[in-house]
Amino acid sequence: MRATTQPIEREALLAEANNIIRQHEDYLRGMVATEVEQKGSVLVFRGEFFLDSDGLPTAKTTAVFNMFKHLAHILSEKYHLLN
């Protein structure tokens, strides 16, 4: 798959991912991708998951998970991380 995707620096990819997040209709205040790693051909995004004081998921957690899944789907088709 890397033959059909463009190489990108981690910081540039996070900037693009966070721009997509902010423009998405399901954006929640505080939703941000802070990390990304390459797992095979898939880009895996991480960030705040809105856990409560006991470390348990809140109602916002599902929205964040879905957003990171969306980013993985659309950006993995376009890019691969430079090592």
Automatic annotation (TrEMBL):
<protein>
    <recommendedName>
        <fullName>Protein yciN</fullName>
    </recommendedName>
</protein>
<dbReference type="InterPro" id="IPR038191">
    <property type="entry name" value="YciN_sf"/>
</dbReference>
<dbReference type="Pfam" id="PF10692">
    <property type="entry name" value="DUF2498"/>
</dbReference>
<dbReference type="InterPro" id="IPR019633">
    <property type="entry name" value="DUF2498"/>
</dbReference>
